[in-house]
Amino acid sequence: MTDGDLEVFLSLVERHRGYMYKLAFRITGNEQDAKDVVQDSLLNAYLHLEQFERRADLRTWLNRILVNSALDHLRSLRRRPDVHDPRLLSDVVDTAASASPNPERLVASADWRRQVSAAMNTMSPLERVTFTLRHFEGRSINEISQTLGIGNNAAKQHIFRAVRKLRLALEPHWSGQ
Q1: Contact of 18 with 31, CB cutoff 8 Å
Q2: If we measure between CA atoms, which residue out of 96, 122, 131, 98 comes closest to residue 110?
Q3: What is the per-residue DSSP string for the chain?
Q4: What tens digit of pLDDT does each residue of 8-30 get?
Q5: Would you say the pTM of this structure is higher than 0.85?
Q6: What's the chain's Rg over C-alpha atoms?
């Protein structure tokens, strides 16, 4: 790889870094984990840059590398739960738009974030990733299937199980409203 290739790669990294971090954070639910996943993904992309097909979309290629890195990271955390203390997914459920939310609304929003975070922490890594890609990123079933290298039916099943877990976790809270 030449110095010119490195410069091109670095400019592409700069362009996609923010998006990659947001996606990694949504998947991992933790700031440091998201940073680690992005760093691993970019290193992996750099090391395998010669495998990138120039006719393909770079963002799609980077996205697939990132999702695979995030899955590996989540799986490693499940094997060693003692090394990870997940923080709340404060960015997952946004506070409803308001010019000046009152204290009750802020408390309710924080409570919803805790509930969603707890529900997402019960999901398997594939459920969490497919749910995030479908419901936060707006990806189609076909895009999710291609990104993860699984069939459409498998992607649908993982999303279905994730939604069911989320509903079950939020149902007591929801019915109390």
Answers
A1: no
A2: 96
A3: --HHHHHHHHHHHHHHHHHHHHHHHHHH--HHHHHHHHHHHHHHHHHTGGGS-TTS-HHHHHHHHHHHHHHHHHHHHHH-GGG--PPP-TTTSPPPP-SS--HHHHHHHHHHHHHHHHHHHTS-HHHHHHHIIIIIS---HHHHHHHHT--HHHHHHHHHHHHHHHHHHHHHHHHT-
A4: 778 877 888 899 999 999 899 88
A5: no
A6: 18
